[in-house]
Structure formats: structure tokens, C-alpha cells
């Protein structure tokens, strides 16, 4: 895979991440898309770009720390949507089969924390690490 394609996908992921943060941090922006399927579009794009970054990194013959940071970035991006879907699925199944009064939390909370805390932190670590390693590699090569 082309290094240019991998970095383009990486920067597109960063841009979509900023868009998602804006959806939650800026009320007017979030209300614009809230309540429609358009609200889910950035999350789906984030997921697909994460999968693409993983594929481009694994097939690209990259090695070392840069490969690890790219995979961490892609996996964290893909993990957000997967965790949100699992959170809703587990909650829905338990609420349906065990009853809403019986189910006051449990396993679905794990997926909620994964989607809201762990995956975004992993994404940020991957982004910062990839930028630092990429800058060092760029300086080292003539």
C-alpha cells in the first residue's frame, strides 16, 4: 500500500474525530443533526476509515512503532461503533428478556465505558504516537 494512502486515511480519521467531538461539544451543531440518521453518518465513516487504516497498515509492509500506532488508531476508531452497538444490543436483550425493572445495569456498562472513554483515549494515543514517529521518520529520511 502506498504510504500516501495510509497517511490520507489517517488524517481523514482525525478530521472525522474532530467532527464527532463537535457534535457533542457544540450544542447548535449537535441539534442540527440530532434526531436523524445523519447523526450516525460520522460514526459509520469513523468505523470504515478505522478498518481501512488497519488494512492499509497490515498489507503495507509497515513495521515498528508506526505500525503499532496506526493499528491502535484504526482499532480504536472501529471499536467506538462496535462498542455502541454492543451496548445497545446487550441492554435491549436484557431489558426485553429480564424486564426493564429487573435490569438496572450490568454488562452493557462495560461497552458504554469502552465507547466513551477507552476507545477515544486509545485513538488519541495512536494519533499522537503516529504523528511523532512519522515526524521523526520524515526528518531522518533525506
| Continuous helix count | 5
If you compute it from the alpha carbons, what radius of gyration comes out, rounded to the nearest whole angstrom? 18 Å
Structural class: mainly alpha
Helix-residue proportion:
over 70%
Order of helices and strands: HHHHH
* Total number of beta strands: 0
What would your notes on this structure say?
The chain is mainly alpha-helical. It has one domain. The protein is about 80% helix and about 0% strand. It is built from 5 helices and no strands. Helix 1 runs antiparallel to helix 3. The chain is globular and about 65 Å long. The model has no long low-confidence stretch (mean pLDDT about 85).
Summarize this entry quickly.
With 142 residues, the protein is mainly alpha-helical.
Write the layout of secondary structure elements.
Layout: H1 3-25, H2 27-33, H3 41-59, H4 65-98, H5 107-140
Helix pairs in contact: 1-2, 1-3, 3-4, 4-5
Amino acid at each position: 500500500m502506498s504510504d500516501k494512502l495510509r497517511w490520507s486515511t489517517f488524517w481523514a480519521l482525525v478530521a472525522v474525530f474532530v467532527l464527532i467531538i463537535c457534535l457533542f461539544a457544540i450544542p447548535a451543531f449537535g441539534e442540527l443533526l440530532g434526531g436523524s440518521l445523519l447523526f450516525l453518518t460520522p460514526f459509520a465513516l469513523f468505523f470504515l476509515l478505522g478498518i481501512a487504516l488497519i488494512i492499509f497498515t497490515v498489507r503495507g509492509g509497515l513495521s515498528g512503532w508506526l505500525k503499532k500506532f496506526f493499528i491502535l488508531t484504526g482499532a480504536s476508531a472501529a471499536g467506538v461503533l462496535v462498542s455502541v452497538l454492543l451496548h445497545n444490543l446487550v441492554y435491549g436483550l436484557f431489558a426485553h428478556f429480564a424486564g426493564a425493572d429487573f435490569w438496572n445495569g450490568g454488562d452493557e456498562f462495560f461497552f458504554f465505558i469502552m465507547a466513551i472513554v477507552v476507545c477515544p483515549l486509545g485513538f488519541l494515543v495512536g494519533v499522537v504516537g503516529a504523528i511523532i514517529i512519522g515526524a521523526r521518520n520524515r526528518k531522518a529520511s533525506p
